[in-house]
UniProtKB/TrEMBL annotation, chains A, B, C, D, E, F, G, H:
Residue ranges of the TM segments: 173-199, 205-231
Keywords, ordered alphabetically: Membrane, Transmembrane, Transmembrane helix
Species for this entry: Chondromyces apiculatus DSM 436
NCBIfam families noted in UniProt: LarB (NF033503)
GO molecular function: hydrolase activity
Pfam family, one: AIRC
Descriptive protein name: Circadian phase modifier
SMART domains hit by this protein: AIRC
Superkingdom of origin: Bacteria
Any one GO BP annotation for this protein: 'de novo' IMP biosynthetic process
Domain PurE stretches: 120-247
Amino acid sequence: MDPRDVRELLERVRTGELATDQALEVLQQLPFRDIGIATVDHHRALRQGVPEVIFGQGKSVDQIVAIIEEIVRVGQSVLVTRIEPDKGEAIAARVPSFQYAPLARTGKVTVKPPPERAVGPIAVVTAGTSDIPIAEEAAETLLAIGLRPDRIYDVGVAGLHRLLLRVDELRHAAAVIVIAGMEGALPSVVGGLVATPVIAVPTSIGYGAALSGFTALFSMLTSCASGVVVVNIDSGFGAAMAAHRMLPGSS
Amino acid sequence: MDPRDVRELLERVRTGELATDQALEVLQQLPFRDIGIATVDHHRALRQGVPEVIFGQGKSVDQIVAIIEEIVRVGQSVLVTRIEPDKGEAIAARVPSFQYAPLARTGKVTVKPPPERAVGPIAVVTAGTSDIPIAEEAAETLLAIGLRPDRIYDVGVAGLHRLLLRVDELRHAAAVIVIAGMEGALPSVVGGLVATPVIAVPTSIGYGAALSGFTALFSMLTSCASGVVVVNIDSGFGAAMAAHRMLPGSS
Amino acid sequence: MDPRDVRELLERVRTGELATDQALEVLQQLPFRDIGIATVDHHRALRQGVPEVIFGQGKSVDQIVAIIEEIVRVGQSVLVTRIEPDKGEAIAARVPSFQYAPLARTGKVTVKPPPERAVGPIAVVTAGTSDIPIAEEAAETLLAIGLRPDRIYDVGVAGLHRLLLRVDELRHAAAVIVIAGMEGALPSVVGGLVATPVIAVPTSIGYGAALSGFTALFSMLTSCASGVVVVNIDSGFGAAMAAHRMLPGSS
Amino acid sequence: MDPRDVRELLERVRTGELATDQALEVLQQLPFRDIGIATVDHHRALRQGVPEVIFGQGKSVDQIVAIIEEIVRVGQSVLVTRIEPDKGEAIAARVPSFQYAPLARTGKVTVKPPPERAVGPIAVVTAGTSDIPIAEEAAETLLAIGLRPDRIYDVGVAGLHRLLLRVDELRHAAAVIVIAGMEGALPSVVGGLVATPVIAVPTSIGYGAALSGFTALFSMLTSCASGVVVVNIDSGFGAAMAAHRMLPGSS
Amino acid sequence: MDPRDVRELLERVRTGELATDQALEVLQQLPFRDIGIATVDHHRALRQGVPEVIFGQGKSVDQIVAIIEEIVRVGQSVLVTRIEPDKGEAIAARVPSFQYAPLARTGKVTVKPPPERAVGPIAVVTAGTSDIPIAEEAAETLLAIGLRPDRIYDVGVAGLHRLLLRVDELRHAAAVIVIAGMEGALPSVVGGLVATPVIAVPTSIGYGAALSGFTALFSMLTSCASGVVVVNIDSGFGAAMAAHRMLPGSS
Amino acid sequence: MDPRDVRELLERVRTGELATDQALEVLQQLPFRDIGIATVDHHRALRQGVPEVIFGQGKSVDQIVAIIEEIVRVGQSVLVTRIEPDKGEAIAARVPSFQYAPLARTGKVTVKPPPERAVGPIAVVTAGTSDIPIAEEAAETLLAIGLRPDRIYDVGVAGLHRLLLRVDELRHAAAVIVIAGMEGALPSVVGGLVATPVIAVPTSIGYGAALSGFTALFSMLTSCASGVVVVNIDSGFGAAMAAHRMLPGSS
Amino acid sequence: MDPRDVRELLERVRTGELATDQALEVLQQLPFRDIGIATVDHHRALRQGVPEVIFGQGKSVDQIVAIIEEIVRVGQSVLVTRIEPDKGEAIAARVPSFQYAPLARTGKVTVKPPPERAVGPIAVVTAGTSDIPIAEEAAETLLAIGLRPDRIYDVGVAGLHRLLLRVDELRHAAAVIVIAGMEGALPSVVGGLVATPVIAVPTSIGYGAALSGFTALFSMLTSCASGVVVVNIDSGFGAAMAAHRMLPGSS
Amino acid sequence: MDPRDVRELLERVRTGELATDQALEVLQQLPFRDIGIATVDHHRALRQGVPEVIFGQGKSVDQIVAIIEEIVRVGQSVLVTRIEPDKGEAIAARVPSFQYAPLARTGKVTVKPPPERAVGPIAVVTAGTSDIPIAEEAAETLLAIGLRPDRIYDVGVAGLHRLLLRVDELRHAAAVIVIAGMEGALPSVVGGLVATPVIAVPTSIGYGAALSGFTALFSMLTSCASGVVVVNIDSGFGAAMAAHRMLPGSS
């Protein structure tokens, strides 16, 4: 896909170093591996500088273990998101190196630790106590990709004092992940207080008019603070990966 | 309908002061007047202590003038909401005592000024400049029912300083009407700062995810500040009438 | 935040009564307490004249007990909403002073009873039998903040007699909380009968076109009775807090 | 389609009265006429006992005139709904017997008056003045099919007196068409007062949470008064046709 | 409420037959009975000629038994809708005269059988096998109010033959209740085939784009067959009550 | 229904070969069979060249077994969709020839194998591993109607290499069924790569803004690749039947 | 992209016929042309066997003319969809060979006529007269790609006779495009009558519950006739292109 | 607000350099200016390093000119978004230094050019020609804040070649703004190709199932490419401001 690779390949064909059929085979042997239930893409980790990630929801323990083992086999680390505690324990029982974080509902096998990155902490801010599981999913993902979370929890806009006293801390962060359900007002306020990236995560906390997170989602998208960006409802993982793309050392 | 009235009527029947048929007639001659296009309810003004109000949207100039004249004929004041400027001018041309407020899109004929009410001002707060027409509808309605608006405009949450410097003013109001479009976050913040009634008005300002005011509406309904109440989208009139119900001297 | 506090602080700095660093520390030692899972805001109770309230949904028994104990430790009362019976019993087993109301799904610890308030009763009206749990949440909250509920249940508009015979009672209330699911028509009718505040609570009762409470919600927002205000679906708590803001003695 | 017709046809084939091919031709010569832009179904009028009806919206004056002329040619009456005034006048200029009703936005050519029907009047009730155009569409349709409308306008639930004084009139109607926008509460109240058919018509009157008539629609569908039926938003025509089906003499 | 009753009462007051206070008391002793959890309205049965109906969903066995007993105590029949089998059996164990119909999820106590009504059968038509429970709710309700159901099941539009062969039967019905989920096309086809009332019931059968019955609901409301009326999703009971209102002998 | 059949019937009546009443009976004895719970349409299989299909969701084991037996009795094969494993096993216990495919949640009884069809394979492509159950429902249905699935799983657009390397395979398919949840982008990309029919199946995989499959559905409907067609959410069966209609040998 | 092209290119590099840099350049000189406002893809026409198509909505006359000229310059035909009459005339004034079809709102320049295709006609069926513009867009597109439309208009399900008499015609079509607004029931009925491909096009005809075409869309997606496929609302073009993919001679 | 400012102020009060009242006044004289219609916040520009921005939609020419003049008066640059051409020209006529960009519908007065920033270009990518206005709003905003746009237009996923040939260019950008309407698939594909920040902008291009941009919005939020972030529909401005926050030199 990358023109430099194509050029090099062509060059090797031209010099006779590689036969036409071999070249075609190389093009077809890009680093995928079909293990029946999935086309594991070992290239992605290299390409984006992150451990392989498995979306655990809707996959069986057998499937997850099979994918983990294939990834670990080639020497990569792996992060699994959205695994409920019983599933997490079942996987740990079969893959001893698997570390499960119950609050975040994530687990990982660290084959090689992520490279250190020369950036400040990422503030992970929640409006309420109920938003903490999503915040922890973000924090665990940040750790897995070599970033450092700074947790600032339960500082929603109905008690503005709590937030204002921590403005300094927010301003020293390399980026701010703001997690809120219900009316989702917190990112607008934070966005007006800091100049760094603000990644808003709506959560499904609330009832009735909270619309399972859509009120917070729309609220954040139409925020009066400019430059606030948004990821999917309850996607702590997505927010962390967005921070990863924004900060030096991601590629 | 009111048991006391029924009792008095029964008593007058019992004493022979009133014949049965007359009593029945009285019951049927409650103060309505059918003017063809509307059943004008002169009783409502008495019942709720407010001038008669006409919802102008979707009514013709002829219809509005006819209803105004019927109301004024019996000595009541009248307020008309939701009239576009051209219609407002056409009415004024035919009813000289009609005063039109273009920003609020309201007009009124004041036959007798509303009674003075011994309450503090009602803060009318907007998040942005674009919310001002709705705020003016609220302010004009407040004036028509004898309440005093205190306008605090363009103090949205993305520039928190502007709001915080006026907290004292908010705390001295008898009630606070908070008007905001887009993400509708302002009532949550105001609700955390004052203990008095907070009436939130979502506006249809914004685009895309603002959903013509529904994002602000849902945001306000699921506000993390407790006891905030909400009226319909763009209903400055509804907010003023809600304040009217809440404050002494409404009945 | 309050200018008077800032002025006093400045004055004490000016007079040397307080060192600069001490003043800063005071500003930072506002009455919050970070207990790990929550930033408990002891100031809020003072600020709004109510017991601390915990939204129980989505919190574990451990978390709720920890927050209750922190609040009680500083001598405040506490109300917990949205706790299912099994959770309620588990908390009561660990906090003996905890009183659980199963119909309302609320519980409380009363350290000091709320101050008496010189206002009339708050009518709590339901359209049907199925709306009673929400009504009880409102009633329990009213009691916790020193207001007196007057329960008027099962008087929906399809049998108008039942409502009309209790109009007197409605007219003597300081405010009326009207709770209805399905088509949510009751607040419009009540709003036309009384001049006092009408706080409408849509409930999720009904099926199909009832849209889990949204039909009642939109119905109430677009009520033809002016000045009716609305809170979130199923939010008996929100309605009681709104009454609290509207009535004398709230601050 | 009707087995009796098939049997008769078969019998005539059996007796040699009709050749096989002729029989097939008869089956294919059912009373349709393709006039290019439409397949005019003259059978429908016979089948359902009503004049032919043209839905005028989105059709040009040319198209409407062509269809009217085809219908009149075979001696049927015709009713056209949803024609704006300018179109109505243009049609009248070309079809002199065309009578246009501007408020209802309907027009008709009466070739033979509808048969008299031995039923009481149909009450056509509106909640507000703005609902009158839809009510007039219902009334005009009722007249076109031989039913008698009894107009009861502007008696919405916020002023209950107006409705209650006309209960007798409602009870004497053969059926009640109830037309309301905004919260659509009127059919629930009427449904509790009368035992006759209640046909609810939601209108698109209102703004914001009125959702262009969907709030009234859902409200009416989930009405707490049993046996209320509903037609499409703004469909005065549909309500009249529903009454037609319900009353003696429709077939 | 009824003017004749008021007139008679007034007359008795005038003749001294009744004291003023007694008259007031009579007005207040209309046939309601408050049994704590419900305001049982014995008048309704009289007023609408039907047994009392209890909406069973969301009520406990205790509550239902208490309401049944109060109704039976005054000599009325009672129908309970929306009771799951386990609840139905529990009620039957405590009220021996209670007859439960599991497919329809309804139960009844027949104190006096409904009066015979001189009308033809009501066709109860379903598009598929899965719509049968809703059809049975309609059928059971029809029986409880003295109407006769004619069941025509599983004749949806994808196999038109099945429907066309039963057109005669449809045409002999006094009214047709058409029950369909998924795309809800059946009422449009039936409405084109018969001239009698067509009451459409959308069901929540289907998945994805079936939208839990809303696609069928909207489909039926915007039916191209004129005069089709619609009730709430899955409301077999509502359809039967609508038929009741439409047919002779309902009051 | 088919004119040729009617003509033949008429001809036999004309020649006296068939009595009128017999002819009518024949018309009424089209190959349906009412087995109480369903009107089994044996004609449909003949008419569309497929085994009978039962939609298993919401039907009891008893009902499904009864319908299977009726179909098998007349010598047809049968396919049952949407049966959960426990139900599938229960049916297999009672109908020994019933073969259950747990991943696809389908089962079948093959009385006579489907005719061989002279067309290429049908590519069944999924974006992710979680879409496989829907793909298997499509594959099982294809097999039941004599078409050959070519499974290409887990080749979503975020890792474009995986898809591009299999373009040849896609281009050799007679039609491509593309199954994707979340943002549903895969059919747009595939539609740009192949000229054969592309049948898009949205799945309910994803959370939050995935809207239970509606985001993928709308995405596919508004695809920028022209000529892509769409079936209902999660309808692997519908996609296979669509392929059946498109390919030679379907009738 | 196509492995055969890559293999040939590699072979030519290997034999020295092509220098490495030349090969790379070839890979980059695929037949696109950037004309500033658009990346015109001349390859697409070749790839899919159709004239270039321009989506006219939202493009200026200048932009459309520029793109047409670029396409015609290389000897391709071009079809433009969604152009209102005034725009169509403006383009024709500047491009004399441009033929505009006002009913379909399409225009085309035919440089070389499409190849003849050995397939039967495509039935283009509408439920009503108002659906004709969408049907004409389909018909014009079919003609532009060498397919033959058979127009069957105004045969909606409320008058079933009209449709049934044309079943033979439907059965002789190679595919059936069914276009319907309002309740969108027609494709379900047609799908039960024919075994060939049924492509359903929902239209935005109707009001209220028709939801601008979404009711018809969802209705068609959840059709009880299996194998019906759906394209976007009002997309006559999409339906024709879908037919193109399904029929022999498309690539 | 900033603790350092508070500390410094306190210090100056302590040293007597500043009187208490003066300090309070300073706190209240933060750089806002109330010009009647707006609270112009000169601090924001300083705080976030950008020119003042006015949201032009819904503001009159008079209002915009007044706000521009106030901003320019204090020596700041200003950018106005969402101004239609006629309004843009009217402003330019009154403010000669005002430069209007019609395609982007933005205008600006540059008092001092933005500081140069040492970052690479920002790729601004569109799926189609119709998305260009939103792309230009982004590009104009980038220029106003000192960033360099690299425009890559009309490279949607249905013609994948066009995109793949420009992958190198995408990989050299500091961030990629991806703008797409309809199914919004482009950001998922781009997100899989580059490791840098991907800011997705849904546009309201398309019809029917495109849902005025919501399908693209939800598609982007649930993208299978991780770390993609999203801004409001049609918000080219929001995307540029997001890039501003992400890149060095923003504060």
